[in-house]
Amino acid sequence: MEYDLKVLKINKNKIEQLNELSIYTVKDLVQHYPYRFEEMLETPLHDESKVIIEAQLIDEPKIFYKGRFSRLTFHVNYHEEPLTITIFNRHFLKKNMQVGMMLTIIGKYSASKKAITASDLKLKNLKEISGITPVYSLKEGLTQKSFQGYVNKALNFYKGHIANIIPLYLCQKYHLIDKEDALFKIHQPQTRSDVISALRYLKYEEFFKFQMTMQYIKQNRTQNIGISKLIDKEKVTHFIEKLPFQLTDDQKKVIDDILIDLTSQKLMYRFVQGDVGSGKTVVAAISLYANYLAGYQGAMMAPTEILALQHYQSLKKMFKKYKINIALLTGHLSQKEKNDIYQQLENGQIDIIIGTHALFQEKVQYNQLGLVITDEQHRFGVEQRKALKDKGNKVDFLVMTATPIPRTLAISLYGDMDVSTIKTLPNGRKKVITKFIKGTSMRPILKDLKDYLLKGGQCYVVCPLVNESEAITGRNASDISKAMAQYFKGQYEVGLVHGQMSDEEKNKIMNAFKENKIQILVSTTVIEVGVDVSNANMMVIYNAERFGLSQLHQLRGRVGRSKEQGYCYLLSEATHSEQKERLEFLENHHDGFEVSEYDLKIRGPGDLLGQKQSGLPTFMIGDIFKDYHILEITRKDAFEAMNQHQDDEKIIKLLSEIKNNLIKNNEYID
Length: 670
Ligand SMILES: Nc1ncnc2c1ncn2[C@@H]1O[C@H](COP(=O)(O)OP(=O)(O)OP(=O)(O)O)[C@@H](O)[C@H]1O
Fold this sequence. Notes:
- By secondary structure, the protein is of the alpha/beta class.
- α7 packs across α22 and α7 (192-223) packs across α23 (649-664).
- The strands form four sheets. It has a seven-stranded parallel β-sheet, sandwiched between helices. A six-stranded parallel β-sheet has the order 16-21-20-17-19-18, sandwiched between helices. A five-stranded mixed barrel has the order 2-4-5-7-6.
- Among the domains are: 41-130, CATH 2.40.50.140; 233-264 and 279-401, P-loop containing nucleotide triphosphate hydrolases (Rossmann fold, 3-Layer(aba) Sandwich); 433-589, P-loop containing nucleotide triphosphate hydrolases (Rossmann fold, 3-Layer(aba) Sandwich), CATH 3.40.50.300.
- It is built from 23 helices and 21 strands.
- The structure holds adenosine-5'-triphosphate.
- The site of adenosine-5'-triphosphate has 20 residues, from α10.
- Residues 245-248, 251, 274, 276-282, 402, 426, 530, 532, 534, 557, 561 line the site of adenosine-5'-triphosphate (ATP).
């Protein structure tokens, strides 16, 4: 049951402050878990470090005042040695301090002065205060102590009514404690092992629920009969044979998977991940062609206008000799142009439509939509997916992403989809020569750059900032482009592209670069995903330490996309050894899956995909990277639960809760 915070008799003003932390119900309060724990354990005296000690007061404390500030100084006996203790603004403690009493002192130790500058002082011995204290992430107005008080109220309110969600056989298998016990232990731990056993239960429960949701969605979908499409496979084979290159084995395998999906009764719901430059566009094109041959319209949605335009141009080129009507719909067409496209989509004149979010606006009606492909799953939420699916009756759905994640993680996270992976790069593709160069000057690589330009190549220069910033240090694209334009005046054209420009401006510059009217393109990370200019094979990245490793791999993937040798220079003043190691790792590793695995190991959450923006599910207590073995185990357990324990009382209850949640959050897709 969901209870409003009012039942806990918390005052209105405090309830508002709790609301700011997205805490609205008693359950929310109990689920606002500590983000760390502080342990009060005696530490040895190490010079210039934080120490916690227990010692005996040996003299009367003295108070000194200076303006509004006070200083309390006294001496203690610590293992037969006197130490001087100073603490600021605690003059009021003096009245309760008697010579001979035991004190606990927390502060910074100076060996030369034999003194501690204390940050906290307790008039008790350590034993009385030792233990483990949860620390919560809070907002202004709430103290740790008051928050702990509210949580305690919430726990007592629920006590005796907290039921286990996990079925008994799983609790027994993993020796999980009860849910009620886990909640008490996470908020009121006595020992470290309390925290460990509480976390084990709570993480397992959170991931298990997630995996059950995935299984539920998947099962629901499989029961849903799709349209078995009739595809002239000979024509598909003929199209493949006419391509200017041989497909890689992975491309062939994915295409086979997709063709099976399209022709089967099952609705396709497939997630294709491939390394940068592994050739996903042609896979999309073949799928769209197969769908077209079966008599259906296809839609391909890209996250940016630059990419939509690029896909449109590549598809137009690939289908030049075919009578397929391909159109581009973006937000920047005139109203008349848009209306024409709407009409042609509705009456079935357009076979394949490429575009951005504009593709699923309400006005857009399809005649016979059969396949939707979205590029970069991470930027499209459930809402958009639903909107697009609503455009057609039983539409097959393909999601492509260029941000590789280890397959096990992909299966665990996208458990409601079938996952295909394109790992191999096209034949003859050379590894991008990657060099980490210390500093932020282009001087050390200028000769390489000039030689390369002289041979007719084009180059990307990536900067972390658009303009000069006072807050952040780093090279900015505007200044760099001006400096380069000046330097190469009369020899080469320099262009500038960044996210603050209008789409029209961006497209103009990108097209000029594609047509080699611009030889040096200075940019921010707007070129990160998907841009494909095969004559541009050199990239210089300023302040490389400022980018995530997977992001650098994405950026580097813009070069070396043909048989030409690609070069990527990582300019960085990285001082931390960890930063250097990461850049050196990129020098020696070229496989996106390896890069993401390394990221996963050393950096944990955040860096791999930028979790928040990525559309990856967020968890309250489990960490998809650090705890991914639990994610994996729960996937198997959820599968088993769905198929072998569907009569278990707890499973029945959980599934009904899952369904209600999906409906409530408007995420229920039939
Ligand atoms: N089997 C192949 N053999 C040779 N070249 C190929 C093959 N498949 C694709 N290509 C070419 O490789 C280049 C990269 O392909 P594509 O743009 O589809 O990559 P991608 O997987 O979308 O990569 P990214 O995610 O980095 O954009 C294109 O120029 C494409 O024509």
